[in-house]
Amino acid sequence: MEIKSRQRSKRNIPHHTSHAEAGGATLADPDDLKKAAQILNDGKNVAILAGRGALQATAELEQLAEILGAPIVKALLGRAAVPDDSAYTTGTIGLLGTKPSQEAMETCDTLLMVGTSFPYLEFLPKPDHAKGVQIEIDPKRIGLRFPVEVGLVGDCRRILRDLLPRLKRKENRSFLEKAQKGMDEWRRIMEECCQPAGCVAGRWFWRQSGGLRPGSGGRSRRCQCNLPRRKLLCRSTVLAWIDLEMPGNEEWKRISDGGSLNRRQRACRYPYPGA
Question: 239 or 106, which is more confident?
């Protein structure tokens, strides 16, 4: 039979839906929490690797870092877990990571992975050099990339809140302080290498090699990863700004194009005029 008109179902009543968000209540086993706390308390050089699962646990991560004297190393998807200017972070890890992050991974004796199963094994500690604790909501990812002594399955923020009271504050702060000094030096180098003439993150020079041709691709991605996150602008906005600040400068238009973290965004060191 042909339907001549479409009518709303009597049970489809307008405004009877909700946009309220609800989180799961997955909690770790108390015995596992006790074991994890013991490993972290016994570790002398503890490093924290935070991923996407830790994005909602900023305060808990910084409390954890303060208690354990541990630098927070961030996987790329977890870069927003703590601010880039936090005193506890050494920035990202991996091909686009920082030297202090890699040094923390190589010299730690205990690794706490929070909401990540970081896939690039070559940047993680050697399995026989460090003990591991992993917090992960998906049990299939526990120990997937790095062998751990204890796996805590559940929501990162909730588990960290349960774990913090069981930890003892470390009096020896040398591991964290060394990472902080290394990060201060790294930021200084980044500020020098990312020349501000056009302020577009695609401009990148390696002084050691005599100055490479500015470009996008890997160099712009590295610049984006290591400059503090201040503002992300789409390419059309960047080009409009280049026209405003440097009329007729086609070179900067070319280097503002190309690959990026999002393929549609570019990082700028300074705010857009009027923003």
Answer: 106
